[in-house]
Amino acid sequence: MVRRYAMKAGKKRKQREERYDREEEVAEQPVEDEAIAKKAMTERTSDGEEEEEKEEVNELEGIPIDPSDLKVANKPKAIFILERASLEVAKVGKTYQLLNSDDHAHFLLKNNRNPAEYRPDIVHQALLMMLDSRLNKSGGLRAVYVRTEKGVLIEVKPHARLPRTFKRFSGLMLQVLQKLSTSAVGKREKLLRVIKNPVSRYLPVNSRKIGFSFSSEKLVDINKYVASASSDTDLVFVVGAMAHGKIDKEYADDFISISGYPLSAAYCITMITNALETKYNIL
Question: Whole-model pTM?
C-alpha cells in the first residue's frame, strides 16, 4: 500500500513539474513573439518612412539642365517675356493645387470665376517651344521671364529642362509659387525663382522691346522684321500667355502683329525663334 502510494505521489510530482515547465514555456513564448513583432513593426515603420522620404525627394527634388553649344556667344541674344500667364494656386479640398480649367471647373464656377481663363497649359507649351528651339540650344537665348495675371514675376533659366507632361509641370510651378524657387538636380543653382518687379530692371540698357498682339494695326513679316533689326541690340519679345485679351504695351518700343489670324503663344514663339535662327544662320 505504501509502495503504491509512493508511485502515485511520484507521478503527481512529475506531472506538476511538467505542468510548471509547460507554463514557463507558454509564458516565455509571447515575450519572444512580442519582441519579433516589435522588430517587424520597427522595420516596417522605418521602411515606410524611407519609402515616404524617397517619394518626397523624388517628387520634385530638382530639374535637369540642358547643355548649350554657345555658338552665338558674341552676338546679341534674345529675351522672352510671357505676360499675363495663368498661374494661380488655391486650396482645393485639403491640398493646394495649380488651378486649371480641366480639373477645377466646378471649383472655379462655385467661386464665381470663369474656367476658360485658367489655362496654365498655354505657359507650358510656350516654354517648351522656347527652350527646345535651336536658338536656345546654341546659346542664343539670354533670359526668360513669366509674369502671372496676379503680377508675380518668375525667372526661368534658359538651360532648365522643364517637365514634358502638364501634370508634372503643374507640380513644379506649384513648388515655385509656394517656395519661391526650385533648384537644379544635385546643385544649388536656382533654375526657376520668383523675383521682384518690374521686369524692365533686368533688361539690357540697349535692348529693343517688341510686343505682340493680333489686335495691333502694324502687321509685319517676322522674318524681314528680325533680319532688319540691328545686330548690336538685344531683342526682347513680349508675348501674351493668356487665352483671351491682350498684353499691356507700356514698356514696349514697338507693338506688332505677325499674322492676320489669331495665333497661340507657342506658335508665335516658334515663328520668332525660326526667324532668329535664320538671321544668325543656326542650323
Answer: 0.76
